[in-house]
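Request: Give me one sample?
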Amino acid sequence: MRGTVPRLSLTLLAAESGARLCAIIHYLVRGQLGWLGLTIACLVPGYAAQLLSILWFRADGRAPGCCLLALHLLQLGLWKRYWDVLRAAEAGGGAGEVLAQLGDVCVLRLLEALLQTLPHLLLQAYVVVAVDPAGFIPGVSAGLSLLSLAWALVSYSHFTCLLKPGHLSPPAAVILCLLLWRTGMLGTRVLALVLFARLYSFWVFAVAGVHWLLMSFWLGAQQTDIVAQPCRWRLFNCLLGAVYIFCYINVRPGPSRTRVVVFYAVSTWNVLYSTWV
C-alpha cells in the first residue's frame, strides 16, 4: 500500500476540486451571485496550506521557482507534493524519504481540508437542505467534500501509524472502517448543524460557540505540549477546539479512549441542548 494512499488522496482531491468548479459554474449560470460569492470565498482559507507548503519547500532547501509558485497560487501545490510522493515510491526511493514527504503532504492536506473543504461542505449542505433540495450539483459537491475531508483525516491517521516502531501499515479493512467512521461522524455533525441553522438561523453560532469554548477549555486542561510558547499554545487550543465541533483528532501520545468518551459526551450534550432549544 506504499503508493495506494497518496494515489487515492490525489484522486479524491481532483474529484473534489472538479465538483467545486462545477458548483461555481452552476451558480454563475443560474445567476445566484450570493451563493457564487460564498463558494469562491471558501477557497481563500486554503491559501494558508499553500503558503505553509512553500515555506516547507524552502526549509527543505528547495528554493521555490516561478513554476512552483504558480502552482501554489493556483492551489495545486499539494498536487505537486502528491506527485513527488508517487514518483519517489515508484522509483524505489528510501523509506525514510518517502515517509517524510508523505507526512508533509498529509499534514498540509488535513490543514487544507479543515480550512477549505469543511466550510465548502457546510455551505453546499445548507444549500441542498434549505435552499434547493433538488440541486444535483451542490449535492454532489457536498458529498465529495465530505468524502475528501474524511479521507484527509484517515490518511493523517495512516501516517501516524507509520511513525510507530516497525512502520506497520494498517490493513485495507482497517482503513475502510476508519473511513466509514469518519464519514459518518462528520456527516451527522454537519447535518445536525445545517438543520439547526435552517430552523433557528443565527442561533446556530451560539450553540457552536458553546461547544467551541467547552472543547478549548478541555484541551487547555489536558496541558498538551505540542506548542511550547504560551501564546501559540492558547491559539492552538482555540483552533483545535473549533475543529472539535465536527470531529475528534488525537493530539497526544498514548491511549485516547477516555478522551474520545469525553468528546462524544460533550457532542451528545450539544445535540440534546440544540434539540431542547
